[in-house]
Design brief:
Layout: H1 14-23, H2 32-51, H3 55-99, H4 104-121, H5 127-134
């Protein structure tokens, strides 16, 4: 887009100018003028949004689409890992149930204890702690 530009003189504090110098490349601007113009347009849009609810919702929608797209992929990955973990847990439960002789009453007591442990530790259960508890060690 070829836009005619004119030269304008502005006065900035040293602090504001240092921010321009520090951030214009971070925003992928090739020149400091481009960064200043984008900043002015953004802030003007923000002010306009206070009066007309059109600018900010559009900006938020664009930002959220980008973030949620990445989060969607993360969510899919976490879901697959949770499924795999659940399958492995079920295999362990079946192998353990076949291997040991525990009555239903004891199983219910262990479940109650496990629920209490998970709640108290936010799920940070340590096998060694469970082993010591069951063997009455410590």
């Amino acid at each position: 887009m070829n836009v005619n530009k004119e030269r304008h003189t502005i006065w900035l504090t040293d602090g504001a100018w240092n921010q321009v110098k520090d951030h214009y490349r971070t925003d992928n601007c090739s020149m400091q003028n481009e960064y200043i113009e984008k900043a002015i347009r953004f802030y003007s849009g923000y002010l306009d949004a206070e009066q007309a609810d059109s600018y900010l919702p559009r900006v938020l929608a664009v930002v959220l689409e980008g973030k949620l797209g990445a989060l969607g992929a993360l969510g899919d990955r976490v879901g697959k890992l949770l499924f795999k973990l659940s399958v492995d847990n079920a295999v362990m439960a079946h192998v353990t149930a076949v291997s040991i002789d525990v009555d239903l009453d004891t199983l219910k007591k262990v479940r109650v204890q496990c629920i209490k442990d998970v709640k108290e530790t936010n799920g940070q259960i340590d096998f060694e702690d469970a082993f010591k508890f069951q063997k009455r060690l410590d």
